[in-house]
Design a protein that fits this description.
The chain has about 220 residues and is mainly alpha-helical. Helix content is about 70%, strand content about 5%. A 3-stranded antiparallel β-sheet has the order 1-2-3, with helices on both faces.
Length: about 220
């Protein structure tokens, strides 16, 4: 019975299956882990190229030359994973008045207090989504310039290199915060991206408006 429920919920989100709520479809979860894998590979190989202090990371990829050759491909696969995530989530990431109120009550969120108007995604998640989408585009464009430098005028290269490096650092900081929230701050969050489901208690506590909407179906 549990297997049948899991199969039904694999692609159907926002439904209740027994004591659980289906939050993310299999497609979303596969795209998420694909993106995470190639982000880590792109980040580590990029760090090795970013500073001599991290050159030892080239050992993970067979040396300096293979690292330089693999890094742009890791980055392209990372961007490829963002595309289905963008297609699935863009419509749900529109900013609303409740998101503005959430931002004003951010301290309450950090104290793990309930914010009743939170839908499926809170304002912080929406900001992270749009920042990742925009940052991914800029990383891609600046990376293409760095990959084929002689194909672009020198002023474009002067712009691309610092942009790429700044975004590299910002992405690193953002991912550390993302991991902290997922693994430590909000217990039960990780299973949403491993099993696709969350408990009813988790849903009602962290995303109460979404839980009410799911309950009304």
């Amino acid at each position: 019975m549990a297997t049948q429920a899991a199969a039904r919920g694999a692609e159907q989100e926002d439904v209740i299956e027994g004591d659980l709520v289906v939050r993310h479809s299999l497609t979303v979860r596969v795209a998420h882990w694909w993106t995470a894998l190639f982000f880590v590979l792109a980040f580590l190989s990029g760090a090795a190229l970013f500073s001599p202090r991290f050159y030892f990371l080239t050992n993970l990829f067979g040396g300096g030359y293979p690292t330089r050759q693999l890094h742009p491909w890791f980055s392209l696969f990372f961007i490829a994973g963002l595309i289905p995530l963008f297609r699935n989530w863009a419509g749900e990431m529109a900013w609303t008045d409740s998101d503005s109120r959430w931002m004003k009550n951010f301290k309450r969120y950090m104290r793990h207090e309930d914010l009743p108007e939170v839908g499926k995604f809170n304002a912080g998640q929406k900001l992270f989504f749009w920042a990742a989408a925009l940052g991914g585009v800029v990383l891609l464009l600046s990376g293409v310039v760095m990959w084929f430098p002689t194909s672009f005028p020198i002023w474009v290269r002067y712009l691309a290199y610092p942009l790429h490096e700044i975004l590299f650092i910002l992405f690193g900081v953002a991912i550390v915060y993302h991991l902290y929230i997922t693994l430590f701050a909000l217990g039960g969050t990780l299973r949403a991206m491993t099993r696709g489901t969350v408990t009813k208690n988790w849903a009602s506590s962290h995303h109460p408006r979404w839980y009410e909407e799911v309950n009304r179906k």
